[in-house]
Design a protein that fits this description.
With 696 residues, the chain is an alpha/beta fold. The protein contains 22 helices and 18 strands. The strands form three sheets. Strands 1, 2, 3, 4, 5, 6, 7, 8, 9 and 10 form a ten-stranded antiparallel beta sheet that branches. Strands 15-12-11-16-17-18 form a six-stranded parallel beta sheet, sandwiched between helices. Strand 11 (553-558), helix 17 and strand 12 (580-585) form a beta-alpha-beta unit. Bound molecules: CIS-heme D hydroxychlorin gamma-spirolactone. This is Catalase.
Length: 696
């Protein structure tokens, strides 16, 4: 007789089938057309709930190969995360050329118009681990794999057009400084700590990048609203063998937008997957993220006239100096089926180029050409990672490389060497279609040296800061104050301010004031005089925001008895303007004034206004009065106001606004005036900012 405990063991349908036997029967009894679960050897499994035990209370038997296989595989499910850019998300799509560059290159991807080339694009943060938040203040990786007819071309860039260092020799130091401190294991995904700023304060070449990393670019609103830059100069090589330098830029179709720092911090708690979710939802809704591809083309002679060295990755080429030509577009329209198989296993490498494109001598790029393949060998476990479907070329490929861990190809024949005379059909090199390195003249003495033309570390940093709008300058200065306030070591804080003085005296003063310094430390003496370069307004974000609601999300707060007609009218108008609408209520189930029962998309306490670009409220008076005593409701409006969002507030809501200490301004309208609300929600209410926070 069974004990009480034995009887309580859950019995599933599978257990019954277990006794009866075969796989076909198993499928039928479960009532579906699903396949039978098997071991990795293809053996049908009869019971996926219980291990094999000697007696109902006895030990589990070593004989249980089904259990052992399942657990062994599980134990090995993880691979090393990327040493940088571990947190990321990606999607499939296509690239289409709209303007041929046949004058400059033989690369088909840049000469054959209107051909859709498949791409996989992965966005990432840099410093955090794979489970870290989406909204730290950080650079965003923008890596695109183009599966061209002539091999995979990887454009492995960032959302910022310059980099921290000039030579790959410094990359491990930079990364060790920014990652969590090794003795304590924190902070995660943050630059606001001593080791990062210590390193930076001693690296004048980082100053330009620091201006960008402290600007609003490092806190994007959405991955759909970031630019992408190939950063280095590359070469395009035409059929005469003549090469032209090129810089690649991705431009988001819906324009750029950033969060506000206080908002980014709160989003991190409310929705750590904020960017990933936004990207996923956009693709699921058919609102496909799209970018234009632009190029800056220039000759060696033109480069010689620039007031900086274009081979130095800490420098950008202002668009005012070399205009951007738009040559194509990329659309991301398919979410991966498997995050692990695709987004996690995708292996980018700047060395993956195609005939007609070549590298420049940028020493940072030169080091990258080594690092990526090397890192994939450990991350993906061996030299055959190129056979993983996401990494394999989509054009024919043949080579004489053989064997190795996880070889999946079954090569035929006797020969795997060249030259050989035994097999006619084995691959050989082709002068005609093969890759030729650009002919580059080089002479000099081998040495460990930095070119003199790389010595100007401050002029472009100054240009960037001075080119920003007043609001953006205030954000940048405040970001520096925030970051340095987290630095415990005084001499590090002072050393950074010394650097800032050389960039721009007023910036140093703002930061010094924000830190409460009694006096400013001496400025750093630059190695070469700092130039006052022409300003580049093209580097701003706020002035260049597109006049569109595309890609935005509007939250409507409702309650039992809310007016169904108003909600429907607002939803339609906002969706027509290109935004997504989400209903928020204190309870997910809500009965509207016409008796309709609706399910809200979010519950108030779990759906703060920080996840929206503008908020609307349609509340009956009695429900609004109840919400005055609900912190989540009061915060909903206080945050929306504080984050400079447009608010469409019904009469009852004004009582909640009063409870939140909000004095209505031009950014608050009535829900009936929905077109004004839409116009306001396309941007932030910048004039409100000085009233809600003190900026440096
Ligand atoms: Fe890097 C990953 C971008 C300099 C070494 N890098 C990585 C990724 C991006 C960049 C977007 C993530 C790719 C993905 O989604 O899988 N890296 C850059 C840019 C740089 C740069 C724009 C400067 C212009 N990187 C750089 C240097 C080195 C590396 C100088 C080493 C010498 N980067 C790596 C790496 C990673 C990587 C260790 C980590 C994971 C990976 O490669 O696949 O090899």
């Amino acid at each position: 007789m069974q004990s009480r405990k034995e009887k309580s063991i859950p019995r599933t349908g599978n257990n019954v089938k277990n006794e009866k036997g075969n796989a076909g029967e198993l499928q039928q009894q479960a009532g579906g057309s699903h396949p039978v679960i098997t071991t990795q050897q293809g053996l049908a499994i009869s019971d996926n709930q219980n291990s094999l035990r000697s007696t109902p209370h006895g030990p589990t038997l070593l004989e249980d190969f089904v259990l052992r296989e399942k657990i062994t595989h599980f134990d090995h499910e993880r691979i090393p995360e990327r040493v940088v850019h571990a947190r990321g998300t990606g999607a499939h799509g296509f690239f289409e050329l709209t303007k041929s560059l046949s004058k400059y290159t033989t690369a088909k991807i840049l000469t054959e118009k209107n051909v859709q080339t498949p791409v996989f694009c992965r966005f990432s943060t840099v410093a955090g681990g794979s489970g870290s938040i989406d909204t730290p203040r950080d650079v965003r990786g923008f890596a695109v794999k183009l599966y061209t007819q002539e091999g995979n071309w990887d454009l492995v860039g960032n959302n910022i057009p310059v980099f921290f260092i000039q030579d790959a020799m410094k990359f491990p130091d930079l990364v060790h400084a920014v990652k969590m401190e090794p003795d304590r294991g924190f902070p995660q995904a943050a630059t606001a700590h001593d080791t990062f700023w210590d390193f930076i304060s001693l690296m004048p070449e980082s100053m330009h990048m620091i201006m960008w990393a402290m600007s609003d670019r490092a806190i994007p609103r959405s991955l759909r609203m970031i630019e992408g830059f190939g950063i280095h100069s590359f070469r395009l090589v035409n059929k005469e063998g003549v090469s032209t330098f090129v810089k690649f830029h991705w431009r988001p179709k819906i324009g750029l937008q950033s969060t506000i720092w206080d908002e980014a911090v709160k989003i991190a708690g409310a929705d750590p997957d904020f960017h990933r979710r936004d990207f996923f939802e956009a693709i699921q809704n058919g609102d496909f993220p799209e970018w234009e591809l632009g190029v800056q083309l220039f000759t060696e002679e033109e480069a010689a006239t620039f007031p900086f060295d274009h081979l130095d990755s800490t420098k950008l080429i202002p668009e005012e100096l070399v205009p951007l030509q738009i040559i194509g577009r990329m659309v991301l329209n398919r979410w991966p089926d498997s995050f692990f198989a695709e987004t996690e296993q995708v292996a980018f490498c700047p060395a993956n180029i195609v005939p007609g494109i070549d590298f420049s001598e940028d020493p940072l790029l030169q080091g990258r050409l080594f690092s990526y393949l090397d890192t994939q060998l450990i991350r993906l476990g061996g030299p055959n990672f190129t056979q993983i479907p996401i990494n394999a070329p989509k054009c024919p490929f043949h080579n004489l490389q053989r064997d190795g861990h996880m070889q999946t190809q079954i090569y035929k024949g006797r020969t795997a060497y060249e030259p050989q005379s035994l097999e006619e059909d084995k691959p050989r090199a082709s002068q005609k279609t093969g890759f030729h390195s650009a002919s580059v003249h080089a002479e000099g003495v081998k040495s460990r040296i930095r070119a003199d033309s790389f010595a100007d570390h401050y002029s472009q940093a100054r240009m960037f800061y001075r080119s920003q709008s007043e609001i953006e300058q205030a954000h940048l200065a405040s970001a520096l104050v925030f970051e340095l306030s987290k630095v415990e070591t005084e001499h590090v804080r002072l050393a950074v301010v010394s650097q800032l003085r050389t960039i721009d005296e007023s910036l140093a003063k703002r930061v010094g004031d924000g830190l409460g310094l009694k006096s400013l430390p001496d400025a750093i003496a630059p190695a070469v005089p700092v130039q006052d370069l022409d300003l580049s307004p093209a580097l701003r974000i706020i002035d260049r925001m597109k006049d569109t609601l595309d890609g935005r999300t509007i939250g409507i707060l409702i309650a039992d008895g809310s007016n169904a007609e108003s909600i429907e009218g607002i939803k339609t108008a906002v969706e027509q303007a290109g935004a997504m609408v989400k209903l928020v209520a204190q309870k997910r189930g809500v009965t509207l004034d016409n008796g309709t029962y609706v399910t809200a998309d979010g519950q108030l306490a779990g759906t703060p206004s920080i996840v929206f670009d503008g908020v609307v409220s349609i509340l009956p008076m009695d429900e609004a009065e109840k919400l005055i005593f609900e912190a989540a409701a009061v915060d909903w409006f206080r945050d929306a106001f504080g984050h400079l969002k447009a608010i469409a507030a019904c009469k009852g809501t004004h009582k909640i606004l009063t409870a939140a200490g909000i004095t209505p301004d031009a950014g608050i309208v009535a829900p009936e005036d929905i077109q004004s609300f839409i116009a306001l929600a396309k941007t932030r209410q910048w004039e409100r900012e000085p009233k809600v926070r003190t900026l440096a």
